[in-house]
């Protein structure tokens, strides 16, 4: 009985964790941490290349799924500003404040591997997930 309960506790959290996917449209804006797009090294990835960090003001958001919780989450992002950590190699002048972007965004439980709750990539990028 104890073994079954232990296995259930180990297996269920990842199965119960929700993942919400949205297509976001908006523009790069200054935020307190990053006045302009900035290369940063993080613990999120370890490939020797920096991520690009910037503020992103979300003008519209579309759910990339059919579930009500995902739809509600995506709608709640409209008219908010998020700090985005964008993976990929880009020239230093590729992003600038005021630039309009279309991003795909996945939000998942931060307690489930890979422990990266907010993942972003350019909507037209082949790098996606």
Give a verbal description of the structure.
The chain is of the alpha+beta class. Helix content is 19%, strand content 36%. It has one domain. It is built from two helices and six strands; from the N terminus they run αβββαβββ. Strands 1, 2, 3, 4, 5 and 6 form a six-stranded antiparallel sheet that branches. The radius of gyration is 17 Å and the shape is globular. The model is unreliable at 3-16 (pLDDT under 50). Residues 1-17 form the signal peptide. Keywords: Signal.
Q: In terms of per-residue confidence, which ranges show pLDDT below 50 for 5 or more consecutive residues?
A: 3-16
What is the N-to-C succession of helices and strands?
Answer: HEEEHEEE
Shape: globular
Question: In what range is the share of β-strand residues?
Answer: 35-45%
Biggest sheet character: 6 strands, antiparallel
Based on helices, strands and strand pairing, what is the structural class? alpha+beta
- Domains counted in the coordinates: how many? 1
Keywords: Signal
Signal peptide: 1-17
Please specify the SSE layout and strand pairing.
Elements: H1 2-16, E1 19-29, E2 38-40, E3 51-63, H2 68-76, E4 81-86, E5 100-108, E6 118-122
Antiparallel strand pairs: 1-3, 1-5, 2-3, 3-4, 5-6
Keywords: Signal
Signal peptide: 1-17
């Amino acid at each position: 009985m104890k073994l079954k309960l232990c296995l259930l506790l180990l297996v269920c959290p990842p199965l119960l964790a929700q993942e919400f996917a949205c297509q976001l449209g908006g523009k790069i804006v200054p935020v307190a941490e990053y006045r302009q797009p900035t290369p940063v090294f993080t613990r999120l990835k370890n490939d020797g290349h920096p991520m690009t960090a910037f503020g992103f003001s979300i003008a519209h958001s579309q759910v990339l799924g059919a579930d009500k919780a995902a739809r509600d989450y995506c709608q709640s992002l409209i008219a908010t500003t998020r700090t985005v950590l964008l993976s990929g190699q880009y020239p230093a002048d590729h992003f600038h404040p005021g630039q309009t972007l279309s991003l795909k965004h996945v939000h998942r439980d931060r307690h489930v591997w890979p422990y990266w709750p907010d993942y972003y990539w350019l909507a037209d990028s082949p790098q996606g997930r």
